Fold:
Amino acid sequence: MRLSLRFIVPLLVVLAALAYAIVPLVDKLTLQWFVRDLDSRAGAVATTIHDPLQQMVETDNRGGILALFARITQDERLYAIGYCASSRAKPIATPTLPESITCGGLDTLAQNDSAGRLIESANGPVLASLRPLVTPRAPAGRLVLVHDMSFIARRSAQTRKYLFLFFVGLAGTVALITVAVAQLSWRGWVQGLQALLRGEGILRPSGKAYAPELRPVAQDLRTLIRDLVQQRGPQDDEQVTWTPDALREILRGDLKGEEIIVVSNREPYIHRYTDQHKVEVWRPASGLVTALEPVMRACSGTWVAHGGGSADRAVVDRRDRVSVPPEHPAYRLRRVWLTEEEEAGYYYGFANEGLWPLCHIAHVRPTFRTSDWEQYNEVNRRFARAVVDEATSDNPIVLVQDYHFALLPRMIRDELPAATVISFWHIPWPNPEAFGICPWREELLAGLLGSGILGFHTLYHCINFLDTVDRFLEARVDRETFTVTYQGKLTAVKRYPISIEFPPAPDLVAKPVERCRVDIRRRHELPLDQAIGLGVDRLDYTKGIEERFRAVERLLELEPDWVGGFTFIQIAAPTRSRIADYQAYEARVRAMADRINQKFPDAAHPPIILHVAHHDATAVYEYYRAADVCVVTSLHDGMNLVAKEFVSARDDERGVLVLSQFAGASRELPEAIIVNPYDVEQCAAALQLALAMPMGEQRARMRLMRALVRDFNVYRWAGRMLIDAAGMRRRDRLAEWSAEPEWRVRDTAGGRVR
Ligand code: G6P
Structure:
C-alpha cells in the first residue's frame, strides 16, 4: 500500500501539471486551425460569388447584392457579409455586419491579410476576412466576410473537458500499471531471492527448469549467507537473553516462520465437568507440560495431544481443535480421541507399565504385553495421521515428546519426508542391558531414529542411547559427533537440559514470602516459627517419597529437638491410579506417613502432613515460598522441574534445596545439598544441615542456583533445539543442492536431463 502511494501520488502531480500546461496550448492551436479554416472558407465564398457580385456592382444593383448576401449568410457560420466600393463608401452589407466594421477601417483589417482578424462584436467574437473584388469597369472594391466564432469558445470548453478526463484516465492507467509492475517485479525478486536462499536456484516461470546462468550468483549468495550464519550461530545460545521474544525471533529469523507442531500424550489444558456439570479447566501435574506450555505460548503453532478430559469433546470445534490458553488464546490444541481399550494398552500398559519402569530402574518390574504393544503401535499411527492432518506445509518442524511416541518419528518421516522431526525423551535412558529387556527394543530404536535430532536431559542418557543402538541395531554410531546413521539417515543425539519459565509468571510470586509463610502455617495450624520441609511430586514410585519420609523419621530420631518443631508437608498429585503399582505405592506412602506420625505421639505438631490432591501452580508456589527446605529425592529422574521451580519461587534468596543425585537437575544445581536417597542417614543429615544453615550461606547458594535457572530457562531449552533444527535444515538443503551435479542441465528440446 505504501509502495503504491509512493508511486501514485507523484505521478498524479506530474500529470496534473502537464494538463495545466497543455490545455492553453491546445486552445491556442485549435483557434489557429479554426481561423485558418474559416479564412479559407471566406476565400471560397468570395470566389463563388465573385462573378454575380461583379455584375451587380457594375450595374449598381444594390438590391441584388443584398439579396445575394442574405442568401449566403443562411450558412450559420457566415455571420455577416458586406461590400465596400471604396474606403469612403458606406458598406452594402447584411444587417448583422458589426458596427465596428466600416469601409474606412478595412485598411486596418487588411494589415493582417494572411488570415482573417478576430474582433469583438456585440454577439461575441467574430472573424473578419477581407477579399478584393476586382471589376474591369468600376474601381476595385472589397468584400468583408464575417464568421461567427462563438462556437469556438464552446468547442474549446468541450476540448478542455475531454482533455481533463483523458489525463485523469491516463494517470489512473499509468499508476495502475506502474504499481502492478513494481509489485510483480518486487515479488519476483523476493521469490527469486527466497528460492536462492532455499538453495533451489532461480526458477523460470514454468517453475521447473533451472536458470543455469544464475547459478554462480546463487552460489556466492549462499556461501555468504552460510558464513554469516556460521559466525552468528555459536553466539546465539550464549549471548541471547532468553525470553519469549528471543524465541519468536529465532522462529522468524532462523526458521523463516516455519510452522511448529508439538506432539505429546498429556494435553496442556484439560476440560472437565464439575459435580455441578459445569466445565472447568485443569492444568495437569506434568513436567513436560510445565516446560512446553510457555514455549508454545511464545511460538504459537499446534499442539497435538490426547483429549482425556470428561468435557474435552464439548469444547472442541468440528476438527477437534480448541484455542488455548482459555483466557488468552495463543496456540491451537488438537485433541486426539482414544478408546478405553487404546488408552489401556498404549498409555497405561506399554508406556507406563513397560517403558516407564524400564527406563527409570526404580525397582518396579516392567511388564510387556503383546496386546499393549499393538495398541502402542496403533495409537502412534493415529497421532502420525493427526500430525499430517495438522501440517499446512510439507516441511513442518515437529517436536515429538517422550516415551509415549517412540515409533512416531519414523512414521512422520515416512509421511512427510521433508519435515524436521525433533524428539525429546523426557525420562532417563537406561544402559543397553536394562533396555534390552524390552521385546521390541529394535522397533523402538528404529522408530526414534526417524528423528533428525533426538534430545535427552543429560550426557549420560545420550551415551546410554548410543550404546543401546550400537548393541542392537546395524547402524553407524559416531561417538565423537554423537550421531547415528541408520538406513542412510542421520540422527544427532544431543543434550538439552529442560527447564522452566524464568522469571516465573508474576501472579505466581505476587504474594510476599512473609505472607506465604504465615498463611501456610496458619492453614496447617502450625506456629509461625515452625520449620517446614516440603515435597511436591506426582504420587509416583520413582519420586522417592518413602525414602524422604524415612529421612524425616531418622532426623527426628537423631535430633529430637525438632520433634514438634519441624513438619514435613508432602503434596502428592494422584497419577496413573489405574495401575496396580501406583495404587500400592499410594497405600504405602499413606501408611508410612501415618506410622511416622504415630511414632511421635508427643509431638505438638505432626512430623508429616500428606496432601494427596491436585494443586494448581499458584497454590504450589505459595508452599515453595513458605518452606524452609524443599526436598527432591527421586530414585531416578530425567530432570525434575520441582527443584527448578523451588529455586525460581525464592526471590527472597532464602530456603535450601536438598536434591537427589539421581535427578538430572543435580548436574545443573550443585549448590543444592546433593544426596543419595537410598542413604537414609545421609538424607537425615542433609535435612539437619539445611534446617541449620545460616542465612548468608542460604543466600549464596540460592543466588547461584537462581542465576543458573535464569540463564538456562525453558526458552533457551526450546531455542537451542530450534536453532539446531534450523542448522539441520540448512545442511539438508546444502546436501540436496550439492548432490545435484553442476553439469546437470535441462535439455529443453528433448525434455531429458543430461
Ligand atoms: C513425566 C513424563 C511426562 C508426563 C508426566 C506426567 O514427566 O515424562 O510425559 O506427562 O510425567 O505423567 P502423566 O502420565 O500424568 O502424563
About this structure: The CA atoms of residues 622 and 679 lie 30 Å apart. The radius of gyration is 47 Å. The first strand starts at residue 78 and ends at 84. Residues 266, 286-288, 402, 426-427, 538, 575-576 surround 6-O-phosphono-alpha-D-glucopyranose (CB under 6 Å).
